[in-house]
Design goal:
The structure holds two protein chains of two kinds. Helices cover about 0% and strands about 50% of the residues of chain A. Chain A is built from no helices and eleven strands. Chain B has strands spanning about 5, 10-15, 20-25, 30-35, 45-50, 55, 65-70, 75-80, 85-95, 105, 110-114. The chains are: A mainly beta, B mainly beta. The interface between A and B is medium-sized, with 25 and 27 residues.
Chain lengths: ~110, ~110
């Protein structure tokens, strides 16, 4: 119930292509869904986040699509660049628990080839 | 100015030793966390403190003891280190109850137990 399942584990995309990472959850109490980006040797940094009252959120080349009925959400990176090569984590949390606890997916290592 | 800083960045120690990791945040957040990232990059919460009070303790062995002297600091002490404790430990902070619940992560402490 507390799990967030993320796929694929790794992804190779050509420069300029679209990278798509998918996540699924079971707990319907989750109400905050962030995506974090992590470069080697660094901590995760928030990339973009969405709440379940909207189906899509776009920030620059990054878009989250959210399907509440399917309990799935995905990250789309348009015009992928070599600088986007990193590990991406989806996460979920429950605002009502008032703990800020993030449940992370397993991570996706993205490599963008020049 | 670093938002969430933790020291040391690297820690190599022998089995059975006791070690501490320190964390400080200058964001004015009221909640701090310790997350563990294993060799497969999976991130899992260990502890959370809100206004110096423990609010999350995720079935972590008693050898791990967090201490929060004030809202801006959260330290992690580990007794009798074991090989399986080798991982990257991340400190994070956030502001609970606000519209933006973004968690900011430190750079991590890579602990290697030999």
């Amino acid at each position: 119930q507390q799990q967030v399942k993320q796929s694929p584990q790794s992804l190779i995309v050509q420069k300029g292509g679209i990278s798509i990472i998918n996540c699924a959850y079971e707990n319907t109490a989750f109400d905050y869904f962030p995506w974090y980006q992590q470069f080697p040797g660094k901590g995760p940094a928030l990339l973009i986040a969405i709440r379940p009252d909207v189906s899509e959120k776009k920030e620059g080349r990054f878009t989250i699509s959210f399907n509440k009925s399917a309990k799935q959400f995905s990250l789309h990176i348009m015009d992928s660049q070599p600088g986007d090569s990193a590990t991406y984590f989806c996460a979920a949390s429950t605002g009502s628990s008032n703990t800020g606890k993030l449940i992370f997916g397993q991570g996706t290592t993205l490599q963008v080839k020049p | 100015d670093t938002a969430v800083s933790q020291t040391p960045k690297y820690l190599v120690t022998q089995m059975g030793n006791d070690k501490s990791i320190k964390c400080e945040q200058n964001l004015g957040h009221d909640t701090m966390y310790w997350y563990k990232q294993d060799s497969k990059k999976f991130l899992k919460i260990m502890f959370s403190y809100n206004n110096k009070e423990l609010i999350i303790n995720e079935t972590v062995p008693n050898r791990f003891s967090p201490k929060s002297p004030d809202k801006a600091h959260l330290n992690l002490h580990i007794n009798s280190l074991e090989l399986g404790d080798s991982a990257v430990y991340f400190c994070a902070s956030s502001l609970l109850g606000g519209a933006n619940t973004e968690a900011f992560f430190g750079q991590g402490t890579r602990l290697t137990v030999v």
